[in-house]
Design a protein that fits this description.
Bound molecules: adenosine-5'-diphosphate, magnesium ion
CATH class of the largest domain: Alpha Beta
CATH topology of the largest domain: Rossmann fold
Oligomer: single chain
Strand content: 15-25%
Distance between the termini: 21 Å
Radius of gyration: 21 Å
Helix content: 25-40%
Number of helices: 11
CATH architecture of the largest domain: 3-Layer(aba) Sandwich
Order of helices and strands: EHEHEHHHEHEEHEEEHEHEEHH
Length: about 350
């Protein structure tokens, strides 16, 4: 194939999100796969880096970042724009892109924001659309829909439209939580990621503190019964038809999978997970069904709890732009399912053209 027929892939990464640095690692992995020997004849890359202040860098600067090894040489160099200015359509070469590959994890990206923006370019995109992305990100709406569909999930309470700045409101809520749910509970911001803002609480004072912590991130909060669980994850790819990967298990040495344990080196990923084939089939079925119901396609990672005492499955959450670093579960699941990283990235692009 000659250079002219190469498809130009626009990678968008970084972003105003607490998962900024994970996004840079994910983008590097995808970039390397696109310029690998297997793919270099098919693709060329333009890169769009958004720094932590929301400033868009041009293609040269962004590509340089993807080729750089050090992690911190990045944002320090590019400061805030003068107050009140935005630059996201200035000097940004949107025109030459054939296919978008957004890799913004968490807020201001994975929540559908980037999908909405890119829709106006009328170019295909790896991943889903606005609706599925927004629903996948929002733990309250996701759970309400799954309750309606009777997809198994842990008992929960949704908190919204309440002023948690007021102590008596927090006090009343904590009483209600203790009345309605079994302790301990997990208290989470409805929209966050990487376990940020989440606490496990086992009494009233811990619940009040946990509400406060979650409220600092999002005024919408979800409270769940905390179970003693194994954590299982399933990869999904596809468009008109969705395919599931092998099931993986993540195990860690801490009490639960909090921020520090997520990014520590002590986690173990086991693929395929050591579970009954029946459970594995059930997980794959629920993973595909839940994505279908929320209009999630392209790619996603669906996370489950397997309660140790009952061996019951509960859907925990769906990530619509799953971590894509070389050590992330999503690419490892597909590697175990017969697609190496270079094949996976090419496949995701083919799927976006479906
Ligand atoms: N109901 C629950 N029971 C037991 N552990 C939980 C529960 N909810 C969350 N956790 C623990 O907290 C982690 C993060 O929760 P999760 O809802 O996946 O948030 P995030 O979107 O930040 O990944 C989970 O991986 C798990 O270890
Ligand atoms: Mg999670």
């Amino acid at each position: 194939m000659g250079g002219k027929e190469k498809k130009c892939i626009g990678i968008i990464f970084g972003g105003e999100s607490n998962e900024h640095y994970v996004s840079i690692s994910s983008a590097k992995t995808v970039f390397e796969a696109l310029i690998s020997k297997t793919n270099i004849d098919r693709f060329r890359v333009k890169a769009f880096y958004i720094n932590e202040n929301g400033v868009w860098l041009n293609n040269d600067q962004s590509l340089k970042l993807l080729k750089e090894n050090s992690r911190n040489a990045t944002t320090d160099k590019y400061q805030l724009l003068p107050k009140g200015e935005i630059n996201f359509l200035n000097n940004i070469e949107f025109q030459s892109i054939d296919i978008w590959f957004p890799l913004l994890h968490g807020l201001n990206g994975e929540d559908g924001a980037i999908h909405g923006l890119l829709k106006f370019t009328q170019k295909p995109m790896v991943g889903g659309g606005i609706l599925g992305s927004a629903l996948g990100m929002d733990k309250i709406l996701m759970k309400k829909i799954f309750s309606h569909l009777e997809i198994p999930q842990v008992n929960y309470l949704a908190i919204q439209n309440q002023n948690l700045g007021d102590d008596s409101v927090k006090n009343n809520l904590s009483v209600e939580i203790i009345e309605k749910l079994n302790l301990p509970v997990f208290i989470k911001p409805a929209n966050s990621g990487s376990s940020l803002g989440i606490s496990k609480a086992k009494n009233k004072s811990e619940i009040i503190r946990a509400l406060q912590k979650a409220y600092a991130i999002d005024s919408r909060i979800i409270v769940e019964e905390g179970l003693d669980v194994r954590e299982l994850e399933c990869g999904i790819i596809g468009n008109l038809k969705l395919y599931s990967s092998e099931i993986g298990e993540v195990s860690y040495s801490t009490d639960w999978y909090d921020y520090n344990s997520k990014y520590s080196m002590n986690n173990q990923i086991i693929i395929p997970a050591d579970i009954d084939s029946q459970i594995s089939e059930q997980i794959k079925k629920i993973a595909i069904r839940s994505c279908r119901e929320l209009n999630i396609y392209g790619f996603a990672r669906v996370d489950f709890f397997l309660e140790k005492i009952s061996n019951k499955i509960f859907l925990n959450e769906i990530n619509t732009i799953p971590g894509f670093t070389s050590k992330s579960m999503f690419p490892m699941l597909w590697e175990a399912s017969g697609l190496n990283i270079n094949q996976l990235v090419a496949k995701l692009i083919d799927i976006s053209l479906d």
